[in-house]
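Worked example

This section walks through a single chain of length 286. The input is the sequence exactly as stored; nothing has been trimmed or padded.
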Amino acid sequence: MIAPIDTGFGNTTVKVNGYLTSSAKQEERSYYRSMELSEILARIERRLEKLGLSAASASKAAGKTDAIRNLQRAVESGDKRQGISTATLNALAPILKTSSIWLLAGAGPESIDNPDEIENDAARDYGSRTSDLVLAQYAGIVEAGSFRPVDEDINYDVEPIPVPRDRKYPHAKLFFFDVAGDSMNDLKPRPIMPGDQALCIEIEKLRVPYRHGMVVVVEQIINGGHLRERSVKQIELFEDRVEFCPRSRNPKHKPIVVPREPTADDGRIVAVIAIVRSIVNTISSD
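Given that input, the structure is written out below as tokens.
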């Protein structure tokens, strides 16, 4: 079965007419919640104090009326449903003479007279300007053949990682998966190995044509919607089907085959939820 599902990373269907599309029409935004909020608020209030600004005046100057006060209320109430968007942090940063990455994660110098021109330490590590550095949020595990409960909690204690904004898709949300298993250990030119992190773009609001060889994250849902598998696969296009293929030296891994004209409901929901853009791995110096 090919059907749209709410994956948490965009309401996206595997389309067999040559496109990955999304029907979701949500405003593009990234939210940071719970214990991060108090830390973000502390940094905002630190800059307000140093610059002699009030929360109301800074919010107004940023074009985000009551943004700081709303954040203060959320922290005071402990309301975990509330958050602050990256758009708000980006707007506040120049008013507070700092960078959005410092407000969010405390990375780089605190005080920047001209945030558009001065590079912070974290940005220099990636050869990118502060305005081009974003945080990729953790999205869980990809592992072929491993079906987990749909409602299984993601470990949100995993720290986001700073990465350059994707230059081909600069407005796309970035997130990363931990890679487990050996289903892509023979991918060319670079294998994807257990312990790697797959840096991906959310495909919500994008219209991206299928390409033979595109590497994507595919989600299968079975057992009446109770179990799901997320895995990295490479696309192969045929006249009568789309195949999402493992690239492995282990013969147990098989392609996920989606006919262009499904004839029966086999109880599966198959959806592409992300495009893999790069692979990250840290070499320990210990």
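What to look for: Residues 35-51 form the longest helix (17 residues).
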